[in-house]
Amino acid sequence: MKRTVILAVVAVVAIGLAFAGYAAYEKRALRAQLADAVAAASDRLGPTLAIDVNEPPAGLAGKLDADVMLTEVALQKIRSFAARRDPPLAEAADGYVASVLEVLRRQAGAAQYRAQFIDDRKALAAHMAAAGARSDSWGAEAIRLRKRVDDGYFGYQLAVNSLGNMLAGLADARRKLLEQMPSAKVLAETDIALARERSITAAAAAKLELENARRLAGPA
Fold this sequence. Notes:
Blueprint: H1 2-49, H2 60-80, H3 87-129, H4 138-180, H5 189-217
Helix pairs in contact: 1-2, 1-3, 2-3, 3-4, 3-5, 4-5
């Protein structure tokens, strides 16, 4: 009888140790998966973080669109992980990658609106330069082009301001993640801050461009 009890106790202890060992393994695996996802997100945003959105390089829009798609997939993958072993870390990693995704989206939007704003300003300038050859429809076309410039500026300004807000959110998400995983490969705090400053500068520069375009076009 005593031997049976001892064997039962040993079996219970062995099962408990095995369960604890498996739980620890699952937690380590989760941390490794989240660390990889965080590092990949940082690597995607890193090269575009230093770009001046007022002067986007050729091919930027295509790269950003691809990075947005890849980061969306990565975020969904994070959310499919069994996060019950470390909920605070899973939540922090989710927040960081989601913030990277939102910054990439705002960068893509800013690049698109910037290109449109530049094209519209050029079209308006070319039209006003041809004032000497006015036709009956010249005035109506000038009004239409000025409205396109105004609309393009509004879209760009909204995208750039939103980009600045998302960068502030990324800085906060970065801090929360490092509290849970100090070794995580995250973007440098100074790089995020400088990118936010550039977005503010870009918004101010675009406002001046709009004012110059309006002066060129004359009263609405």
